[in-house]
Prior knowledge:
Elements: E1 26-31, E2 33-37, H1 45-60, E3 64-66, E4 72-76, E5 80-84, H2 91-120, E6 125-129, E7 142-149, H3 154-167, H4 169-172, E8 176-178, E9 181-183, E10 193-196, E11 204-207, E12 219-224, H5 233-256, H6 270-279, H7 293-304, H8 328-353, H9 359-375, H10 378-381, H11 386-398, H12 407-417, H13 425-431, H14 441-449, H15 457-469, E13 474-476, E14 480-483, E15 495-497, H16 508-516
Parallel strand pairs: 10-11
Antiparallel strand pairs: 1-5, 1-7, 2-6, 3-4, 4-5, 7-12, 8-9, 11-12, 13-14, 14-15
Helix pairs in contact: 1-2, 2-5, 2-14, 3-5, 3-6, 3-8, 5-8, 5-9, 8-9, 11-12
Amino acid sequence: MPQLRERAEGPARPRSVHADDFARIFGIETEYGVSATGAGVECPSQEVASAMFRPVVSRSRSSNAYLANGARLYLDVGSHPEYATAEARDPRTAMIQDAAGEALMRSLAMQAQEALRTRHGAGLQVHLYKNNVDSAGHAFGCHENYLVRRQVSLDAVERQLLPFLITRQLISGAGRVDPRGFQLSQRAAFLEEGVSSSTTRDRPMVNTRDEPHADPDQFRRLHVIIGDSNRIQYATMTKLALTHLVLCVIEYGVRTGTPTGFEACALCDPSAGNRAVSADTGCADARLELEDSMGFRECEQRFLDDDGDDDDTQAPASRHADDNGPTAVRMQEHYWRVVRRFVREHGEEIDRDTPGFDARETCRAWRGLLDDVIAGDIDALADRVDWAAKRRLLTRMECRLPQGGGRAALQRLDMDYHDLANGSVFASLQRHGLVGELATRQEVLAALHEPPHDTRAWLRGAFVARALDASLPFSCDWTHMALGAHGQAGDMRAQATLLDPFDTTGDAEYRALMEQLDH
């Protein structure tokens, strides 16, 4: 297994004030699929993507642009528009940033549709898919990013976090009509490795490429590839929130040298387990083969003996110990119990370090989701979980189709659910109150123009906005910004590096850079 670089070159930097707390940076990178229908002349996806990015290139002189709201917008390999959110300090802000990305992409798609109609006819429709598999079976990603402490080893990620991420699809999967039947996850069939530095050849569930976008001596960026793109905002926020809590437990264990409760959760074959969980639409049959089944049962029993808070319910239906391996639900319940106990002791600290976060309420919400999964109550899950919302729709449609037929109709409904530009299915669910929106229209509009105020994105966004308004050439990435033509060092008038993602004030170098924008 490849190991990340453990030491940065150059002199040691001051120890971060967040080195030993629960503060985190969150981000989501979403690749979108595009296509066009109804054209009089063939309109390939490359032409659609190019038309979408024409306004971006016109303003930023590049199809790889950092925006005034702190985000990154670029055209990825395979003509996939991609939006990477600005850095966020909490799951809800990250969800709102992701919703702003949807709004921006939808606007670009509709502008492209109008432009393309002049060439391809008034019947052309642009389709913008926030999903992970196109109609031809090509996969693309939704990547979650979490800032974690450098002491957390890749071994801990693989053995302690990966089983959680694999079974998390019970409540965060987007669902998919697959040739083999309905799947909980869109990504599971395409992931071959657990932890790897590869991104395309042998797609891993967690990518180990060492790009921390922070002080590499103190932090690493956990690049999670296993997750689906969610349409339901609750699912987006919840997957970030639950992963945050699990990471808090792991980091604390590393920091203090104490057991986490996840040590015996490691799977023998993560890829096989991931596919098995995805195919288990009843969420009760697939069994996970563990490296240490006895150790897991012993650890599980220690947490089962915990009576819990008065407001926390137990779920005896899934508590069965056998030699066939735990189900995904049982694994999720173990993670929930460990986290719940940890939150009792450290919940106030987690909330203090994570703005607007409520660790205890997150645990209660997690418990409620698991109870509905155990009960098989699709209707109860459908307003919060994408695969359940989609499964309910598909089941009702399937009842009206001829027996053994209609798969193409089900696949069209599946794709329509994810179409942000001209889809009708998800919008209808929203109009009828069957799925909710957590982010208000005002919050999304604000996130389209302003970065989060409590991360480095605020500084980068201010620089980009002023450079664009002044029509000055500049270069920018997550940690570095400079004025002047790219690649022409002699023309650079000022530059700055922002290595601390929690920084909201900037140093003398940054202030000098901003002063240059006034000259």
